[in-house]
Amino acid sequence: MREKIGDDAQERYWDSISDEYHDITRIDCSDFHYGPQIPGESALHILPEFSTGMTALEIGCGGAQNSVWLAKRGVRCTAFDISRKQLAHAKAIASHQGVMIDLRIGSFADFRLKTLASQFDFVHSSHAIEFVENPRDAVAEMAASVKKGGWLMISTVHPVYNGDWMAVADEHDDVERDGQFIVDYFNPPDDIRDEGSEHVVSRAYPVSAWFKWLREAGLEVTALEEPAAIADAPYSSDDWAAHGGQLDVIPSTVIFVAKK
Ligand SMILES: C[S@@+](CC[C@H](N)C(=O)[O-])C[C@H]1O[C@@H](n2cnc3c(N)ncnc32)[C@H](O)[C@@H]1O
Known about the structure:
two-stranded antiparallel sheet; 13 strands
């Protein structure tokens, strides 16, 4: 049985690591980022055109750099995070970048999201949905907040990243290489993140499960990306860079864009 991590524990964990997260992570507001070490929107071109007056909702925004990028294009942005400390960083970043974002405390499971249902041209979340108890409900909740004709973007941990590296030898030669041992693609094991007495669990799911949840929520998937690492990523950190060649041969992030 999987451990349940409530919203209070999530908030305490993210509050406790927030300052360090922003110290060690470099996120460039001049691109829309999808995850660590991978190309941003300037390379992938998978989002709709944005114009002044459009509306966007970000969930699990952290420093809200993606909302800043949208706000610079004239989009009216609302951004939620479960952590007050993360929102304080978002407020400072938005102010430094000279844009206004409506920053709100709240979780994927929060009733306040429901009160905003069907108001947004674009709903997005980068690497936050892996921390929720029920991603299928979270996808449905996000989809309910998208206007008819609007768009949703979710990026999350790729299920093949949730494995162990091992040395492998080909039966025809004895040259050893690094290979990936996938424990269980269909039910990937929990990735437990500890910080002092607090911890959260990051969970991966098969790519087909996300596809199904998006379709069930009434959306049509228009892009599915599993990018390899690049040198000049809009989101980078020394910790992620230390994964070196691993991220050239397996994807760490899967990205979905879908239309309502
Ligand atoms: C890995 S960070 C990513 C932050 C940001 N999206 C980015 O790409 O830099 C995950 C974020 O999700 C937030 N978070 C975790 N669980 C959440 C939940 N249940 N509801 C809303 N936000 C959550 C955390 O506070 C944290 O800011």
